[in-house]
Every structure is written in C-alpha cells, then in structure tokens.
Design goal:
single chain; 127 residues; mainly beta; four-stranded antiparallel beta sheet; globular
Length: 127
C-alpha cells in the first residue's frame, strides 16, 4: 500500500531555511507526481510545488517561486522541498501528496488532483 511520510518541520526564525522530506513507500506507478501543499490556520490548502517522476519537470506557486525548490532522490524514494527566506506567512502544516502523471506540460497544484496524502509536518516561522 502506498504511503507518504513527511518530516523536517520545525520552528525557524524569519529569514531562515528548512528542508522538508517526503518519503514514498509501498507500491506506486512508474510515472507519478508528488506535490507539496500548505495549510495555514483559517486558510484553504495551498499548492506550493510539484515534480514529475518521468522528467523531473517542476511547477511552483506564486507565493514560493524563487524561494522554494523541489527535488527528488530516486534512490531514496524521497522528494524534498528546500525552503529559503522563510517568513511568518509560511507558517502552517505542510503536506506532500501523490498523483498520476498530468497530461499538461507541467504538473498542477490543485489539491483535488491528488489522490493520496501524508499526515503533514508543522512549520512555524517566528522570532
């Protein structure tokens, strides 16, 4: 059974950096997409970034473009989200999620397109 487990969340000061990990285990398709999402208190779940396993193409949401970088390590079955220049608005629970391959050129960041979710990891940006 496919399972996603996030880790790496922490309390960090404004301007700091964190790297989140999404460990994939179990059975999954040869080609798939992993997305990172964030849910802040009182807000809807926001799509941050996604990466395709077929060609490593990536996509980013406007609020994180230029600050966050998604990557994958196939040998470790892990997808990472490197987060730099963090600010208070980045506070929230971060989730990784699994989807099949998108027919569009780039993977998409709509939560409804993802089938399986991890349990989330808390990121708090505060001084």
């Amino acid at each position: 059974q496919l399972q996603l487990v996030e880790s790496g969340g922490a309390l960090v000061q404004p301007g700091g950096s964190l790297r989140l990990s999404c460990k994939i285990s179990g059975e999954y398709l040869e080609y798939f997409t992993i997305g990172w999402f964030r849910q802040a208190p009182g807000k809807e779940r926001e799509g941050l970034s996604c990466i395709s396993s077929s060609d490593s193409s990536t996509n980013y949401g406007g609020s994180v473009k230029g600050r966050f970088t998604i990557s994958r390590d196939n040998a470790k079955n892990t997808v990472y989200l490197q987060m730099n220049s963090l600010n208070a608005e980045d506070t929230g629970v971060y989730y990784c999620a699994y989807a099949g391959i998108f027919v569009s050129d780039l993977c998409l960041l709509s939560a409804d397109d993802y089938d399986l979710w991890g349990q989330g990891t808390q990121v708090t940006v505060s001084s």
